[in-house]
Amino acid sequence: MKHLTGLLLVFLSFLVSPAEAQTVTRTRHQAALTTDAVTTGTLTIRKPDYICISTDGGRDQLLMEGTKFTMTMGGKKHVTDSRRNAQFATFQKVLNAVINGQPVTKGEDMTIVTKNGLQTITITPAAKKRQMFTSFVLVVDAKTSDFRQLRMNERGGNYVNYDFK
Questions:
Q1: Tens digits of residue pLDDT in 33-90
Q2: What pTM value is reported for the model?
Q3: Torsion angle of alpha carbons 155, 86, 97, 123, nearest 10°?
Q4: What gap in Å lies between CA 138 and CA 96, rounded to an integer?
């Protein structure tokens, strides 16, 4: 019984432990400013559908918990749900496929290019209504599914870029 309990605890620790933690460098580019704001932080992934990018000592975060996306940047908090936002629904499907090691299925608002062992997935919403981002560009290692870069493009040439190491 003692060995069975120990085996069960080891098995459960694999299920709930934070699977991956990578360092991340965030670059915030605003066309109206001459210098970009660069901060560092961490990327934490827990399968099947939790991703947290935390930078600037935890003050800025991009968090996906299931269908809920929360972005805190510069003291402002933005929340959306992929069940109501088509752009984030596509983004969520891509993220879930990548973190669970599954192939990304191409959609009408997405392009996928594989080159030099990297897969570049660009999500551009078909409907150009009031979206916070004009597109998402996610670069992943084609073999290991490790995140390499995430760029969230905004209007006017502004963007937020995350480089993962």
A1: 889 999 999 999 998 889 999 999 989 999 999 999 999 988 899 999 999 888 889 9
A2: 0.82
A3: -30
A4: 13
- CA distance to 12, 30, 53, 130, 157, per residue, from 125 (Å): 39, 22, 23, 11, 17
A 10 A CB-CB count for 77 gives: 10
135, amino acid identity: S
Sign of CA dihedral 31, 165, 67, 137: positive
How far apart CA 101 and CA 61 sit, in angstroms, is 24
Q: Give kind and range of the element (H or E) at residue 93.
A: helix 86-99
> What is the spatial distance between Cα 154 and Cα 157, in angstroms, rounded to a whole number?
6
* Nearest C-alpha neighbor of 89 from the set 139, 127, 144, 140: 127
Q: Is 24 left (phi over 0), alpha (psi -120 to 50) or beta?
A: beta
Q: Which residue type occupies 157?
A: G
CA torsion through residues 63, 162, 154, 87, sign: negative
Neighbouring residues of 85: CB distance < 8 A, sequence distance ≥ 6: none
